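#onboarding

Welcome to the new folks! Below is a worked example of what a typical request in this channel looks like: someone posts a single protein sequence, and someone else replies with the predicted structure as tokens. Don't worry about understanding the tokens yet, we'll cover that in week two.

Example request:
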Amino acid sequence: MTTTLENPNLQNSGNTISRINRPTLAELKQATKGFNKPVIITDTITEWKAFKSWSIEYLNQALNNKEIKISISNNKIFTFTAENDYILLSTEMKFNDFTNWILNGDRSEKSYYLYQTPIDQSFPELLPDIQTPEYIKKGVPLLANLWIGTGGNISPLHWDSAQNLLCQVRGRKRILLFEPKQTEFLYPFPANSKIPHMSQVKINDPDLNKFPKFASAKYTECTIEAGEMLFIPPFWWHQVYSLDQLNIAINFWWQIRFKDYFTPQARRILANSPQQVWYLIKSIFSKKANK
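Example response:
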């Protein structure tokens, strides 16, 4: 598969993602221009027990060979397709069998990924090993997901309607980011579809006859190392490449700000989804009630 750096159809914006060491909340707000641009935070999760202890041996013992749900891909790209009713293919597997595949398995035919799995629901025994980053306001709706896989796994181009901290525990991840204003070049699926937050473009092998505007899209790229976290603002497009044999990450999603509901992507979804409009109304009145 063509890597991003070799792909002639991708244009680098020339921008860089800055790194900031152990910022205060005020310093992070300044570095992200009011939480509106990505930044890499260093030397913060290095105090977690997860960072210090999470080897395969430790996780095998902690999880006691429990049954887990693993996503499957035949080409290392973990995406949603109409053929599968926009649900990732998956299988049930013992955790130790999964980690044995990471260390010794044949990756020529299919790849496995513990993909976006809520820790509190599926792995509560691991909760004491992590800490909610201090940059997340206490009491806000929060979801922490666990990701475990190996090098080569790809989460294709999409945006999230939440603030996002991607915390790298083992291995590295390379991330391509596109600003929200790049949306017109990225061909999102229809707003009334099941995946309106995903791009129709296969950015490693784009069909420029079908998606000609993609030739004008510009990305910013970064690689996060183990012990670092990446702040991704709501509605920023990103494609994520896992590197190294063992790759473990945790991401935290939390509620967006009221003004974020009026970004172009949010307005597009709200205009086509009564359920999301109702959620917005409830969130507004909930905030007023708590004042």
